[in-house]
TrEMBL record, chain A:
Keywords: Signal. Residues 81-253 form the Oxidoreductase molybdopterin-binding domain. Residues 1-18 form the signal peptide. Pfam families: Oxidored_molyb. InterPro entries: Ig_E-set (IPR014756), Mopterin_OxRdtase_euk (IPR008335), OxRdtase_Mopterin-bd_dom (IPR000572), OxRdtase_Mopterin-bd_sf (IPR036374). Gene3D superfamilies: 2.60.40.650, Oxidoreductase, molybdopterin-binding domain (3.90.420.10). This is DMSO/TMAO reductase YedYZ molybdopterin-dependent catalytic subunit. GO terms for biological process: sulfur compound metabolic process. It comes from Polymorphobacter multimanifer. GO terms for molecular function: heme binding; molybdopterin cofactor binding; sulfite oxidase activity.
From TrEMBL, chain B:
It comes from the Bacteria. One of its GO terms (molecular function) is heme binding. Keywords: Signal. InterPro entries: Cyt_c-like_dom_sf (IPR036909). Residues 1-21 form the signal peptide. This is Cytochrome c. The keyword DNA-binding does not apply.
Length: 396, 101
């Protein structure tokens, strides 16, 4: 019998595992896959330190609609703004709950484990996922579409933690921050706020587990915020502080950064200025093809399988349609099981196409009837990409 | 979402210490023709490894200047004013070198 270790070493050494990925960015686009540190395999390293690791879309692929939609943790994207501790002792970790509360607290993980535990399958996606595909290009982490992943998260609800501290009348928001810290004094510590009613809902949680094991350090051990349906910027890692605010959060990471135009699709004409902005919040419907890369040359087959994963944004995926003529005509894809409104949902179709060049597109529609746009949005931050992505390919 | 029973074994797993060794695989900035990378290596690597810069799209000198200003004013990077012309020169040369794959 072949051992798992042997199998992994064979896979790691095989040309398929080592093949570079073209991110479709036009320039500086073809990237090797790397194993940057323990626990991560075959990732696109956008930056070593602090780590920015992107998941190649093929890592989301499976040949069955019934296959798990969970992204393997070793392939899950990574995004840190600032350096963070690389030694974590959960038993010594404390989370302070302070500010506009009747009873300020310092809680251990043991304290949190005594609260009711919940779990959810939810997509964690960077607000700048797809930024590298913006035209014209914008500065920032140059992600293609792999700054996302789907995982099962487990831990206590935020509202049960806040209730222990008993927020005062007039409490407006909860600001969360963690152990990551800027290298130079005076730089703004990373902190994000949720309105109190959002923080007190059924879904926002503090996760101690990811995909059924203890939250790995690189994903924010020993505990992180999970805000289902909202972009990852709110999912504060290595959480150690919850501040209850009686006034709006005017900190850098809410008032200046992670803001997008207050327009439909957060879109403005490139070069525009002076528009009103608002914080990035809920995600939008998206879908990606996982078995064919842009520019693929495939041997002709009578029925070409096209498959991928879709998300509804902050609600269920209701439908996915596929086009082989750049969006002029569409056919419905078959959907896999619905694992909840915050999960990836698999889709597939078999296309009967002649030999030659084709432009594939997929378009997800959520349970509110919102579909992916056919034209890409643009904003200077590179946020909220949700366009139906064009995948040019050729059958030969 | 559903309520779960608390499993003592899971608590033990969550309580185990973790450590991780990270390393800079991006390497130092390199000279581009006559544009020395010395100022880049002296001023940019305290906060992030080099790929943050080298993976950026082609930006204009004005955009690079804005980026340097943001690093100084927001992130308090102690960038020497005397080094800024060399930074802009290197970054502009890097952008000029960006070609489609």
């Amino acid at each position: 019998m072949i051992s798992r270790r042997h199998l992994l070493s064979v896979l790691a050494a095989s040309p398929a595992a080592a093949a570079p990925v073209d991110l479709g960015l036009g320039i500086a686009s073809t990237r090797p896959l790397a194993d940057p540190f323990e626990g991560k395999r075959a990732m696109i390293v956008q930056r070593s330190l602090p780590p920015l690791l992107e998941t190649p879309l093929a890592a989301f692929d499976a040949d069955s609609l019934a296959a798990s939609t969970l992204t393997p943790t070793e392939r899950f994207f990574v995004r840190w703004h600032y350096p963070f501790p690389t030694d974590i002792d959960p038993s010594a970790h404390r989370i302070s709950v302070s500010g506009h509360v009747a009873k300020p607290l310092s809680l251990s993980l043991e304290d949190l484990a005594r609260l009711p535990q919940t779990e959810v399958i939810a997509i964690n996606q960077c607000a700048g996922n797809g930024r590298g595909l913006f035209a014209p290009r914008v500065p920032g982490a140059q992600w293609a579409n792999g700054a996302m992943g789907n995982a099962r998260w487990r831990g206590p609800r935020l509202r049960d933690v806040l209730a222990l501290a008993n927020p005062n009348t007039g409490a407006l928001a909860v600001r969360a921050s963690g152990l990551d810290a800027p290298p130079f004094e005076g730089a703004p510590a990373f902190a994000k706020s949720l309105a109190l009613d959002h923080a007190m809902d059924d879904e926002v949680m503090l996760a101690t587990h990811m995909n059924d094991v203890a939250l790995p350090l690189i994903h924010g051990a020993p505990i992180r915020l999970v805000v289902p349906g909202w972009y990852s910027t709110y999912w504060v890692k290595m959480l150690d502080k919850l501040e209850i605010l009686a006034t709006p959060d005017d900190g850098y990471w809410m008032a200046k950064a992670y803001r997008a135009p207050a327009t439909p699709h957060a879109s403005v004409i490139p070069g525009a200025s002076g528009f009103a902005t608002r914080p990035v919040t809920a995600m939008v419907p998206r879908s990606v093809i996982t078995n064919l890369a842009p520019g693929a040359r495939q041997p002709w087959t009578q029925r070409l399988p096209v498959r991928g994963v879709a998300m509804g944004g902050d609600t269920h995926v209701a439908a996915v349609h596929i086009s082989a003529d750049d969006g002029r005509s569409w056919q419905p894809a078959t959907l896999g099981p619905d694992h909840g409104r915050h999960s990836f949902r698999r889709f597939e179709a078999a296309l009967e196409l002649p030999r030659g060049a084709h432009v594939l597109r997929t378009r997800a529609t959520n349970s509110r009837g919102e579909s992916q746009a056919m034209e890409a949005n643009w904003n200077p931050g590179g946020f909220y990409r949700g366009v139906s992505e064009a995948v040019p390919m050729e059958l030969v | 979402m559903r309520a779960l029973f608390i499993l003592p074994a899971l608590l033990l797993i969550a309580a185990a210490p973790q450590s991780l060794v990270l390393s800079d695989e991006d390497g130092a900035f390199e000279d581009i023709a006559r544009n020395s990378a010395d100022a880049m290596n002296a001023n940019c690597l305290a906060c992030h490894s080099s790929a943050m810069v080298t993976h950026q799209p082609a930006l204009t000198p004005m955009q690079w200047r804005e980026t340097i200003t943001k690093m100084k004013t927001v992130y308090k990077a102690p960038i020497e004013a005397a080094d800024e012309p060399a930074l802009i020169a290197w970054l502009t040369a890097h952008s000029a070198r960006q070609k489609p794959d």
